[in-house]
Amino acid sequence: MDYNNKTVWITGASSGIGEELAKQFAEQGAKVILSARNIDKLNQVKDELKGEGHRVIPLDLSKPETVLQDVSAQIDSLGPIDILINNGGVSQRSLFLENDFKVYRQLMEVNYFGLIALTKAVLPSMVARKSGSVVAISSVAGKVGSKFRTGYSGSKYAVVGFMDCLRAEVAQHNIHCLTICPGSIKTAIAHNSLNGQGEAQNKPEPSIENGMNVNVAASKMLTAIYNKKDEVVIGQGLSGWAPFIKRFFPSLFNRLTAKVEYK
Question: Are 86 and 33 in contact (CB under 8 A)?
């Protein structure tokens, strides 16, 4: 793979999948724009990247209108964006009957509207050049549902639907759209997942702790982008097979998910 001198913008780049994607793209010669809320962590990641020309642009995806306004105002000065990776997001581990309504608002603002806002700001310049890739990191939870994830899964289903429509709309402009649905990947996602009151639960989850190594997952994502795939599921074990089981054995899948009790 050769991403030499390509500019790749990654949200959620301060940790987890986003951080690892930044490192691997930089290793391939790309210039990376790092975005998240924590500017100190972003600068730390930037300092660890191979190569030159990397930049930090702090963004708060929970304020999508601000993202749209601020990025639109500076997009021309940033130069061509070759690949936009909408990775930033937050998960949830709580039962519907126990959730405050605000939790659903939080999840949709970050996972869905934040993604739309940044894409809205960046995509026109790609269309003008008739070149570029828009990548959305959804989730296996955006293909199948399970307990404790009504808000998270709903927001990630929305991302899958949005990307399906966008792909159809911009195909005529030679824009590549890829939806990536990770399963259980070893990151801090479980620790940062929202509880029923919209606060981080700050505890591990066995399925995540035993999931795919983040460096392996990121490598598979780079390959999918390079090969211009439309949609890929990246995971091991049940998290990787879940969409297949749901599609071909829906009744079995529904019975299994009803018995699952881990968060």
Answer: no
Active site residues: 152
The 8-class DSSP code of residue 234 comes to: E
> Global pTM?
0.93
Q: What phi, psi does 54 have (nearest 5°)?
A: -80, 150
Query: Is pLDDT above 60 for 262?
Result: no
Structural tokens at position 72? 């639109």
Reported residue count of the chain is 263
> What is the H or E stretch that residue 55 is in?
strand 55-56
Domains and CATH numbers, the chain: 7-259 (3.40.50.720)
Provide DSSP, 109-131: IIIIIHHHHHHHHHHHHHHHHT-
Summarize pLDDT for 213-234 with one digit per residue, the tens. Answer: 999 999 999 999 999 999 999 9
Angle between helices 16-27 and 214-226 (to 10 degrees): 60
User: Virtual CA dihedral for 243, 155, 9, 175, nearest 10 degrees?
Assistant: 70
Q: DSSP string covering 10-35, please?
A: EESTTSHHHHHHHHHHHHTT-EEEEE
